[in-house]
Amino acid sequence: MKLLFAADIHGSLAGARQMLAAYDASRADWLILLGDLLYHGPRNALPQEYRPADVAALLNNYSDRIIAVRGNCDSEVDQMLLNFPITAPWQQVLLERTRLFLTHGHLYNPDARPPMRQGDVLAYGHTHIPQAAEAEGIICFNPGSVSLPKGGFPPSYGLLENGTLRVVSLETSETIAQVAINH
């Protein structure tokens, strides 16, 4: 199974289009959205092509392939525009030998982990900073931000393929970070 991860779109139509083009090109089975899909948030500048309603319409074309969690900027009003559920604070995906714990990152994150076993993956967004690393037996994975990257990183997304989690630049398709998992 191949999964594409994206976080922190924040209403950027340009970012959403690039991410969905990467999803289509990757031929991933599922699109995992780790929150903050439509609203830019009061602490962020407006992203390029800030058009939340158009982002919602674009994402709705993929609604049967999306697994999503709620970010700190997502609301019930956002859910009214989307044809897939976004109100769960976390979700889990079970692979053969690994559990993916999906969350936005404002409730659960590497410093505030849910109960996890050795080899589990904590997939989160929120910080807008890519990460793919093992810490105390847990894989911490953040695909970065599609539209408002921080820390000097480019816009990015994540990909799980053949037992490797990678963070990939939206601009160049180069790998920014990667870590192997026990899938």
UniProtKB/TrEMBL annotation:
Record's keyword annotation contains Metal-binding: yes
InterPro entries reported for this sequence: Calcineurin-like_PHP_lpxH, Metallo-depent_PP-like, MPP_YfcE, PdiEstase_YfcE_CS, Phosphodiesterase_MJ0936/Vps29
GO molecular function: hydrolase activity; metal ion binding
Keywords: Hydrolase, Metal-binding
One matching Pfam family: Metallophos_2
Annotated EC: 3.1.4.-
Calcineurin-like phosphoesterase domain boundaries: 1-161
CDD domains xref list: MPP_YfcE
Cofactors, names only: a divalent metal cation
PROSITE patterns for the chain: UPF0025
KW Membrane (keyword) present: no
Family affiliation: Belongs to the metallophosphoesterase superfamily. YfcE family.
UniProt name for this protein: Phosphoesterase
Source species taxonomy: Bacteria, Pseudomonadati, Pseudomonadota, Gammaproteobacteria, Enterobacterales
